[in-house]
Amino acid sequence: MKLKMTKKTKNISYSKARKQYLRKIKKDKVWVLFGQIAIFVCFLGLWQLFADFGVIDAFFFSSPSRIVSTIIDLAKGGNLWIHIWTSLYETIIGFIIATLLGVIIAILLWWSEKLRRIMEPYLIILNSLPKIALGPMIILWVGSGTGATIVMCVLICIVITTISMLNAFISCDSDKLLLMKSMHANKFQILFKLILPNALPDFISVLKINVGMSWVGTIMGEYLSSKAGLGYLINYGSQILKLDIVMASITLLCILAAGMYLLVSPFEKRYKK
Amino acid sequence: MTNLLEFKNVKYFYQTKESEINALDDISFSIKERDFSSIVGPSGCGKTTILSLTAGLLVPSDGEIILNGKPIQKNDSRIGYMFQRDHLFEWRTIWQNIILGLELQKMNKNPENLAFAEELLKKYDLYNFKNKKPRQLSGGMRQRVALIRTLVLEPELLLLDEPFSALDFQTRLKVCDDVYDIIKSEKKTALLVTHDISEALSMSDKIIILTKRPSHVKDIVDISFEGASPLAKREDKEFGKYFEMIWRNLV
Question: Which residues of A touch B135 (CB under 8 A)?
């Protein structure tokens, strides 16, 4: 009861400086939001106006209204959902495989220092190799289409996942390891009770990076060879000189990538200090 | 009382790519049961090496270390280790941190052990923080949790590796008192290494002074004060005399 009372009086007796400070925070927040919306509206508005008055050629630059009507047309045609689903499917499967495999490889490399030292030069080579160079071989090996795209997506994400997670594992405080050993932890216990939970914040960073990277992989894979997907649609649109299709696909891509990022970000808030 | 820990002519060599380093050259001393002993020495004299050897994390190159009549084994379970920093796991609550050792040794289903852990928490005013995360506690409280985490496993000997050096001076004096109280009331034997002479003086019954590397025991000083707590000891008249004696021995 007493505690409640003091809390209440505290509320009333905010100092002038405190009130000013709180007001400033609120004001800044409003301004940031306003700025974000203003850029969006201005960008689209000017684009539309310039296109309508012929300042830019809408054939090459498209316009917001043309993008919207293209998307509606595509949706009516029924193919749009196939393209979106294909890309989304490839990205999510690639993302999951790459993240899981990358973490497992990192665990194996953490487990054996010798293996780590043996593999080090190969990891460096794989990391610096532009994975797109492997494109033609991937098509020959797994055939064109969804499979090839997923492989490309995995290749792009997996090396960076492995390297980041391995770094997180081996940078664990040596005294913490000693503590675990002094309490007779075996290697499995050290892995599951110290190394993995300790690397959780790094894992979340990797997830965020992989959201972006897996979309790169998917679009690159679809450019190489595909019969469906947003990457295919972009490629197709540019070949038949229908820039509206290209722009519409890019717009959808933005929305999907942002959506996936938003799905990952709650984890960040929860687990990152 | 009997000797709990005995170092008999212990030698230790570090192997590095460049050379073999003679860290400990013939260390012999003994510690009585329920005594609080400290090892002081110039930096790099191998204080931490002595703790690692005692804990069974390292094996002596020569000589013997005997605990309670039996030689030290690899990762000896009779030893509790307390580090410079508390190393509480941020992803675990205070309670989960405290039973970490029990969990690792698959004793966390044993009601006796759990009751003991709970009792320690209650006794040392941490019970209300049971479900809090470590970051919600002050530095001093965290160090107390770290000590209880070791005590839960009921070690015969506690090793303290400069456990207060990461704390600011005010907290340090307070935590020093707390830890001393806990160790004494749980009737534990403790071996502290530190470079801080006054800290060693304020807590110990016996101080072992080491020389520079390759280190051997230069002197062993028995300390007796009127004061009960470390803080009270710091105010004792004899404190300055002891301090000077040990300091002269170090240089």
Answer: 273
What is the number of domains present in chain A? 1
B157 chain-A contacts, CB cut-off 8 A? none
Residues of chain B with CATH 3.40.50.300: 1-33+41-78+157-251
If one compares B154 and A271, the residue with the highest pLDDT of the two is B154
Q: Assign A217 to helix, strand or coil.
A: helix
> Nearest C-alpha of chain A: how many angstroms from B245?
33
pTM given for the model: 0.84
Of residues B120, B124, B142, the one with CA closest to residue B133: B142
Question: What would the mean pLDDT of A233-251 be, rounded to a whole number?
Answer: 92
pLDDT in tens, B113-125: 899 999 999 988 8
Q: Is the CB of B104 less than 8 angstroms away from the CB of A185?
A: yes
**In which residue are the tokens 């009333």 written?**
A12
At residue B5, what are phi and psi to the nearest 5 degrees? -120, 135
Average the pLDDT over B226-251 and give the result: 80
The ipTM of this complex is: 0.85
